[in-house]
Amino acid sequence: VLDIVTKQGTIELKGDKRFASAGDDGIIFLWNAQTGEKLFELHGHTHKITAIAPFSSSAASEEKKYLILTASADRTVIVWDCTSGRQVQKVSCFHSTVKCLTVLQRLDVWLSGGSDLCVWNRKLDLLCKTSHITDAGISALVELPKNCVAAAVGKELIIFRLITSDDGSEGWNVLEVKRLVDHQDNILSLVSVNDLTFVTGSHVGELIVWDALDWTKQASECNFWDSSVHPDVQPEIKLSQSPNETSVQHLTSDEECVFAAVGKGIYVYNLQMKRVIACQRTAHESSVLHIEKLPNRQLISCSEDGSVRIWELREKQQLPAEPVPTGFFNMWGFGRANKQANQAAKKMQENTPVYFLELVGDLIGHSSAVQMFLYFGELGLATCSADHLIILWKDGERESRLRSLTLFQKLAQNGDLQVKF
């Protein structure tokens, strides 16, 4: 169906049963998530798609429109109407490839990140931009409170503040307010947890938790591959450590945990405990490219090896701790303080749950790297791969029940359904 699909290659249109996919052939497809039907084929770019984002109208007076923004290596950005499949507008004034797009619904503007950061309104008027930042360009953007955004530029994290205008046209400005240089290598993943916290991950396996208000480092983890830090995992004997095996390729989160795709493994980092509470160091045979949290404590991950797997976060049943022997000194009261410490440690151990990730599903269908996927709840799962395929997966039990219900309804309408007592 497609040429090689990029990591930015699929987006869900919120509140709708459709999604968009894009690839290195520069073509965008719109799909029906329920039936798998191809709705539109959008032509307008001449090079590969580098970023894609939903861009729905927000004005209460306007009729609800489902739009998408697409950026390409041809140095253009196009707005598409998902209802008609037509091109709405095209911007061609960029000096470099736009690598990321972010829509700030609250401010009713959108941002493009390349060698500079640009701020646009919904009419595609350029409101303001930064000076040239770097030839490497901005690789990721995330919205922060107080009209700020965080931009990943190589190993640096740059905080920008948007100065808004009352009349919506003039007086906009974007200011650099801080540079965070805590990472030792390029930042590959960036995710907002809530209004107070965001998280970054780097090429050498560093995960840093940041305060979203004052941009200070709250916690960090950089020992994902160290078996001594995760004793529940069987250690592996290796002569050397490949950089790809420690790279944080993707991050997602809920209010309690950050879920990290690190090398071939997946890790669950608890924000309150500030530590990894569960992991699968070899979740796939090759690098994990995308990971998402599902309801009911489940995760889905996909890999370069073409596999898609479903995991469930479960709590281990702990055996009761053995009683602490009294010993000679405790007979005379000399060990009372030590006994109290042992009881406190025992109570802490009992109150600290231990978790593990169990494989509960393996989706076999792709023959090459699965770049990413979208989960649609009851409608199923859509995966895109370098094998030129997009596969729509369904819950077999649910689909069987629906088919049976449809069959019984047809039989009842035709009068062929007879109930005997």
UniProtKB/TrEMBL annotation:
Subcellular location as annotated: Cytoplasm
GO biological process annotation, one example: autophagy
InterPro entries (UniProt xref): WD40/YVTN_repeat-like_dom_sf, WD40_PAC1, WD40_repeat_CS, WD40_repeat_dom_sf, WD40_rpt, WDR41
Key words of the record: Autophagy, Cytoplasm, Repeat, WD repeat
WD repeats: 42-90, 281-321
Broad class of where this protein is predominantly found: cytoplasm
Keyword hit for Repeat: yes
Gene Ontology cellular component list: lysosomal membrane
UniProt keyword annotation of Cell cycle present: no
Quaternary structure annotation from Swiss-Prot or TrEMBL: Component of the C9orf72-SMCR8 complex, at least composed of C9orf72, SMCR8 and WDR41. The complex is formed of two protomers, each individually consisting of one molecule each of C9orf72, SMCR8 and WDR41. The protomers homodimerize via an interaction between C9orf72 (via C-terminus) and SMCR8 (via N-terminus). Within each protomer SMCR8 (via DENN domain) acts as a bridging protein between WDR41 (via C-terminus and N-terminus) and C9orf72 (via C-terminus). The C9orf72-SMCR8 complex associates with the ULK1/ATG1 kinase complex.
Protein name: WD repeat-containing protein 41
Species the sequence originates in: Accipiter nisus (Eurasian sparrowhawk)
